[in-house]
Amino acid sequence: MQPFVTLADLEARHPAELITLAADETTGLRDDERIEAAIGDASAQIRAILRARYSVDELSRLDADSRDTLRIDAIDIVLYRVAISFARSSDRIEKRHDEAVKRLQAIAAGKASLSFASEPGGEDAADPNRSANEVLMDAPSRVFDRRTTRDL
Backbone phi, then psi, for 45, in 5-degree steps? Predict the structure, then answer.
């Protein structure tokens, strides 16, 4: 499954912080392998939190707005994991991580929601006003109504 953030996203948003946090202890060069591992771990953590409300299929169909929202939280979680990996954590990084996790837990608890891309020709395409979390029921027609009970 696709990660919620990429190394390019991290470089674009926090280039100096990424170099400071992820410099290898021996060479002083940025360790991209450990950053990629943190990206994978953060994405797994996000999915684990959101699975309380959303299925794996739904998480694979997130629209651009929801992906952008989750990317913000993923960046904070990745930076925290990188800082922990290199023993360079700070209160500021830890606070950003904790706030990101709280936002994700709020989404999982239903205090906020994610939206999904409609599948071509699927049910979502038929009704653009339908909520992603709307309950659909398929039930047999009524057995007793005024017409069928008139003669009783």
Answer: -65, -45
Q: Is 70 exceeded by the pLDDT of residue 134?
A: no
- pTM across the whole model: 0.75
Neighbouring residues of 115: CB distance < 8 A, sequence distance ≥ 6: 62, 63, 65, 66, 132
Instruction: Find all residues with CB under 8 Å of 108, minimum gap 6, and list them.
Output: 49, 50, 51, 52, 53, 54
Question: By C-alpha distance, which of 35, 33, 45, 52 is closest to 1?
Answer: 45
Q: DSSP character for 141? A: P
Give the closest residue to 1 by CA, choosing from 57, 53, 51, 78: 57
Rg from Cα positions in the chain: 22
Q: Judge whether residue 129 has pLDDT over 90.
A: no
What is the DSSP secondary-structure string of 61-107? TB-HHHHHHHHHHHHHHHHHHHHHHTT---HHHHHHHHHHHHHHHHH
From CA 77, how far away is CA 67, in angstroms rounded?
Answer: 15
112, 106 Cβ separation under 8 angstroms: yes
